[in-house]
Automatic annotation (TrEMBL):
Residues 5-42 form the Glyoxalase/Bleomycin resistance-like N-terminal domain. It comes from the Bacteria. Keywords: Lyase. PANTHER family: BLR2408 PROTEIN (PTHR36503:SF2), BLR2520 PROTEIN (PTHR36503). This is Lactoylglutathione lyase.
Length: 135
C-alpha cells in the first residue's frame, strides 16, 4: 500500500473553504465530510483535511497559528506545466485568495503561490527534470 498523506488545516468557515477550493477544481470525499470537517482530494495519495477551528483544537493542546502574523507551513504541489501553475494561482485570486509570492522562474523550475481564505500558504510548481542543471 502506498503511503498516504493527510494534511490537517484549521479553517474559520468550512463552507467558504469548500467553495474556495471547489473553484480551484478540487473535489471532496463525502464519506469524510460533515459540519466539522471535509476531506479534499488532491490525488490518490494526498488529501487535505479542512477542519473547523474548534474541531482542529480537539486534536492538539497547542494554539492555532495566526496566519496574518506567521507562516505555519507552505504546502507545495507539483503540476504538469507552467500554464497550470499560472492557472491555479489566477483561480485562487479570483476566488478570494491573495498572492503570497512573486513568480519564481529558475528555467528548470517555475513556482507561484497564494494564501487561501484562512491565510494558509500554497505554492504550485512545475519542474522540467530534463532541463535541471547537472552537478
Amino acid at each position: 500500500m502506498a503511503t498516504q498523506i493527510f494534511v490537517n488545516l484549521p479553517v474559520k468557515d468550512l463552507n467558504q473553504s469548500i467553495a474556495f477550493f471547489t473553484k480551484l477544481g478540487y473535489t471532496f470525499n463525502p464519506q469524510f465530510t460533515d459540519e466539522k470537517a471535509t476531506c479534499m482530494i488532491i490525488s490518490d495519495t494526498i488529501y487535505v483535511m479542512l477542519l473547523t477551528e474548534p474541531f482542529f483544537m480537539s486534536f492538539t493542546k497547542k494554539g492555532i497559528a495566526d496566519t496574518s502574523q506567521v507562516n505555519e507551513s507552505i504546502i507545495c504541489l507539483s503540476v504538469e506545466n507552467r500554464a497550470d501553475v499560472d492557472s491555479i494561482v489566477a483561480k485562487a485570486v479570483e476566488a478570494g485568495g491573495t498572492i503570497s509570492s512573486e513568480v519564481q522562474d529558475y528555467g528548470f523550475m517555475y513556482n507561484h503561490g497564494f494564501l487561501d481564505l484562512d491565510g494558509h500558504a500554497w505554492e504550485y510548481t512545475y519542474m522540467d527534470m530534463a532541463a535541471m542543471p547537472q552537478k
